[in-house]
Amino acid sequence: MKDANDIHAVMTEIGKRAKAASAELAFASAERKHAALIAAADAVWANRAAIIEANQKDLEYGRQKGLSPAMMDRLMLDEGRIRGMMDGLRAVAEQADPVGEVLAEWDMPSGLHIRRVRTPLGVIGVIYESRPNVTADAGALCLKSGNAVILRGGSESFHSSGAIHKCLVEGLKAANLPLDAIQLVPTRDRAAVQELLTMVDYVDVIVPRGGKGLVGLVQREARVPVFAHLEGIVHIFVDKDADPAKALRVVMNAKTRRTGICGAAECLLIHKDIAETLGADLIRALMEAGVEVRAEGLPGSVPAGEEDWGKEYLDSIIAAKVVDDVDGAIAHIRRYSSSHTDCVITENDAVANRFFERLDSAILMRNASTQFADGGEFGMGAEIGIATGKMHARGPVGAAQLTSFKYLVEGDGATRP
């Protein structure tokens, strides 16, 4: 490795190594990739004490930086979360290998036989902030989909990400796959991010995972294509035909289970006909759970201001508003949504169908907590992020979404007249 002070040289070398590794990984067998992921999962569990020790250094760093409780929660690893990481690696390992999957196949009158098959994207750059488990998720999904990956973890998770990365490399070694297939940028220097965003000769796509500041920077400055969501401004509309017990259960889980994740509810919209009954009960329950409710037309903690609509709190705060009906909810969401996840709670099929039909968020839900907006909960084993754009990947980005396709065309001496 080059002198770590020469960021351009360091990143160029990482890029060259990743490009070379991706060429070999693109045709690695499903069995070898499976073996690498299982060995990595075993290594994560065997080294859990070392990972927790590294995480303690990061937590101390986070305390010194004055991170919020929600951000500290994102950063923290304990044995339960490490078990979850291990389970995620195993789940990705057991999925069907997407590379080489035939998406379509047909014959032409000219004598051509044509197949469209999945193929890796190449080299993926992942830039993330405080959640060190992204190291495992991103490494696993890129490996499964035949892509080399360059991981640039946040300064807060520097030691944890390094300890997890060592386990992924152990997996590559055990399966005799190129060790450069999963690389971790070895510096906290922000100049490394700027380099990664412009490495068009080596990197095929960038995936940022983090707050609005990071994602905005990436979307503004990247010369490489980006899969990203800027914010998780998540709405829940409680219709007049909502089941009260379901509504209470879903709203409380969507807001309070973990407030610092992108699927946490940030705005509660309540039908005017139930504002004084179920609506008041929901607000009371949220406040009793320690949530600050910034309300309009409801008796909340404090009055809502215009700045509270379209705001991602990532904290024990929620905006709440009375709307006339489902169309009022749709109009509000269209204006303020970030196209991430929005939910309707209703027993009325017509209302639910209208909500699903007339909104175009990446994920739309009915009678289910928005905290399910996660690739693992969608059966993808893990996700590398949520994409809210409309090109290529959308919603949770799992292994299959990290592929493109190519056409394989066969003839028997066919010529074109």
From TrEMBL:
UniProt KW RNA-binding keyword: no
EC numbers: 1.2.1.41
CDD domains in the record: ALDH_F18-19_ProA-GPR
Localisation: Cytoplasm
Domain Aldehyde dehydrogenase intervals: 16-286
InterPro entries hit by this protein: Ald_DH/histidinol_DH, Ald_DH_C, Ald_DH_N, Aldehyde_DH_dom, G-glutamylP_reductase_CS, Glu-5-SA_DH, GPR_dom
Keywords: Amino-acid biosynthesis, Cytoplasm, NADP, Oxidoreductase, Proline biosynthesis
Pathway note: Amino-acid biosynthesis; L-proline biosynthesis; L-glutamate 5-semialdehyde from L-glutamate: step 2/2
NADP keyword on record: yes
GO cellular component, one term: cytoplasm
Annotated Gene3D superfamilies: Aldehyde Dehydrogenase, Chain A, domain 1, Aldehyde Dehydrogenase, Chain A, domain 2
One GO BP: L-proline biosynthetic process
Classification via HAMAP family: ProA
Family listed: Belongs to the gamma-glutamyl phosphate reductase family.
Protein's job: Catalyzes the NADPH-dependent reduction of L-glutamate 5-phosphate into L-glutamate 5-semialdehyde and phosphate. The product spontaneously undergoes cyclization to form 1-pyrroline-5-carboxylate.
Protein name: Gamma-glutamyl phosphate reductase
Lineage: Bacteria, Pseudomonadati, Pseudomonadota, Alphaproteobacteria, Rhodobacterales
Gene: proA
